[in-house]
Amino acid sequence: MIVTCAGILVVDIIAADLPKISSPGELIFAPKGIEVHLGGHSGNVSIDLRKLGLGEGNVSSIGAVGEDIFGIFVESELRKNGVMAHLQKVSQSGTSKDLILVVKNEDRRYHLDNGANWFLKPEFILSI
Fold first, then answer.
1. CATH no. for 3-20+35-126
2. Cα–Cα distances in Å, from 123 out to 12, 19, 22, 50, 80?
């Protein structure tokens, strides 16, 4: 292993190109759908390093996830991209999620549940 990235792992839930932010009780359709992506520094950097040419088995990502469907998604995305996943499974919180709303021609609005990231232990990182 050449590079290990340690830090936050987040599941980004993105609704882009919205005509506006809905008012209370109002329904707004997401014209481009709602997408789910892996985010967070540890996940993004490790996958980007693989895309830049670091070989499989040379990049790992360390982070904390909940024991939920989002944690399974994080692990799956890392492995799919050839990143070795070292995940601290946290029972007291869910995997971090960020709801990102993007109104057309405006900057993104982030709504973060930091979740399992609060529980990543330095001892876990050092044990890898």
1. 3.40.1190.20
2. 27, 46, 44, 26, 27
User: Domain-by-domain residue ranges, the chain?
Assistant: 3-20+35-126
Output the tens digit of pLDDT for each of the chain's 128 residues. Answer: 799 999 999 999 999 999 999 999 999 999 999 999 999 999 999 999 999 999 989 999 999 999 999 999 999 999 999 999 999 999 999 999 999 999 999 999 999 999 999 999 999 999 99
pTM for the whole structure: 0.94
Pairing state of beta strands 10-18 and 34-39? antiparallel
Compute the residue count for the chain.
128
Q: Compute the distance between CA of residue 60 and CA of residue 3 in angstroms, rounded to an integer.
A: 6
